[in-house]
Amino acid sequence: MDWLTYLIYGLLLWFVVSRFLPLRWLEQLGPQDVEERLKDKKQHVYLDVREPGEYKGGHIPGFTNIPLSQLKRRVGEVEKGKTVILTCQSGMRSRQAAKILRKHGCTRIAHLKTGMSGWRGRVVR
């Protein structure tokens, strides 16, 4: 193999690994942390970035649905002065949403690291 092949493999590996590394600026919350923060609704904005069908199938009370696919054009609906708490199904889409929100001026962002798959609290259908 020549150096170009190693470079391509290295870049591919970096790309894959970087998708799973924690973002230093994104606060990682467990289900109990989210339960605690739901008690103080005035300090936080709660967003579920799953698609509408997933959201209607069951969501955490107090979370508003803005699907990841619509977030860039609806980012103006998010209050930037509050901490934004995100959730999705597994934690991957909420990480993507956090990157979008950060680019648009949100500085305090957290997400339910397990997503809805790890949520054992109350769910509204």
Short structural description:
It is built from 5 helices and 5 strands; from the N terminus they run αβαβαβαβαβ. The protein is an alpha/beta fold and 125 residues long. It has one domain: Oxidized Rhodanese, domain 1 (3-Layer(aba) Sandwich), CATH 3.40.250.10.
Structure description:
By secondary structure, the protein is an alpha/beta fold. It has one domain (24-118): Oxidized Rhodanese, domain 1 (3-Layer(aba) Sandwich), CATH 3.40.250.10. The protein is 38% helix and 15% strand. The protein has five helices and five strands, in the order αβαβαβαβαβ. The protein has a five-stranded parallel beta sheet. The longest helix has 16 residues, at 3-18. The protein is elongated and about 55 Å long. It starts with a helix and ends in a 13-residue tail after the last strand.
